[in-house]
Amino acid sequence: MWTHILGFTALPHVGGIVGSLYTRTEVSTWYKTLKKPAWCPPNRVFLIAWTTLYTGMGYGSYLIWKEVGGFTSTASVPLGLYGAQLALNWAWTPIFFGAHNLKLALVEIVILSGTVAATMVSWYPINKTATLLMVPYLMWLTLASSLSYCIWRDNPDKEE
């Protein structure tokens, strides 16, 4: 049981760790040059937020997996949507920090937010606790989407 809990909880962090390879140099160089709104959180907040969010969503996915009896046909929609949103989540960092494509990053995060909402809708009848673990994530994505929009709007010349 513990290996499943740890595996599901750790999985989202894999993309975060890989994404940090893009952000490590870009935050202190390219990202620093972007115009950002006054309400943009300090850089250190992002690491704390994503660590917390990845842990919550990972544990939520474990609860769903356990409730539906593993990787069964019943799991295909709720865990399929979860996997899709996780892939979209992991893709945002290389688009924004790697390719510096602000417009595509904005479009991608909006699609990601919709996929997270769909995941939550599919999870709700299965496990309400798992669904509630996704609420902070969706709230953070709302902030991140707004931030992405403002950065795209205010930095048209920064796209490469």
What is the structure about, briefly put?
This protein is mainly alpha-helical and 160 residues long. 80% of the residues lie in helices and 0% in strands.
Kindly describe this structure:
- With 160 residues, the chain is mainly alpha-helical.
- 80% of the residues lie in helices and 0% in strands.
- It is built from 6 helices and no strands.
- α1 packs parallel to α4.
- The protein starts with a helix and ends in a 6-residue tail after the last helix.
Low-confidence regions = none
The radius of gyration is 16 Å
What is the number of E strands?
0
Largest sheet geometry: none
SS-based class:
mainly alpha
Number of helices: 6
The percent range for strand residues is under 5%
Q: Spell the H/E element sequence.
A: HHHHHH
List the helices and strands and how they pair.
Blueprint: H1 2-28, H2 30-33, H3 43-67, H4 76-98, H5 102-123, H6 128-154
Structure characteristics:
single chain, 160 residues, mainly alpha, 6 helices, TspO/MBR-related_sf, membrane, transmembrane, TSPO protein, TspO_MBR
